[in-house]
Amino acid sequence: MINKAIIFTALMAISATSFAATEIRDSQTAGMKEKIGNVSVNVKNGTFEEAMAALSKEADGKGAAYYHITSLERAGMSSDIRATAVVYK
């Protein structure tokens, strides 16, 4: 019974991550047919990796399959990170 619970939990974790939006590069944006908007995040006292993860989450929230990061920068002399992306279906 415990093995079934472990297997079920593992499958749920895999299926939850399989629906996450995928980051794409400049060269891949030309093939995208449906731009659905933009997303932006501000991460207080964060890292670039945390900002990228937040962008992916925002893209997921808009129903996007893909996102292309258009800016990723530290806000002035602070440790806050600002990031923007274009999202695609």
Description:
With 89 residues, the chain is an alpha+beta fold. The chain has a single domain (21-88), classed as Flavin-binding protein dodecin (Dodecin subunit-like, 2-Layer Sandwich). 38% of the residues lie in helices and 31% in strands. The chain contains three helices and four strands, in the order H-E-H-E-H-E-E. The chain has helices spanning 2-17, 26-29, 48-61; strands spanning 22-23, 35-43, 66-74, 81-88. It has a four-stranded mixed sheet, with helices on one face. The longest helix has 16 residues, at 2-17. The chain is elongated and about 40 Å long. 20% of the residues are buried. The model is unreliable at 7-17 (pLDDT under 50).
Q: Briefly, what is this?
A:
This protein is an alpha+beta fold. The protein has a single domain, classed as Flavin-binding protein dodecin (Dodecin subunit-like).
Record keyword descriptors for this entry.
89 residues, single chain, alpha+beta, elongated, 31% strand, 3 helices, 4 strands, Dodecin subunit-like
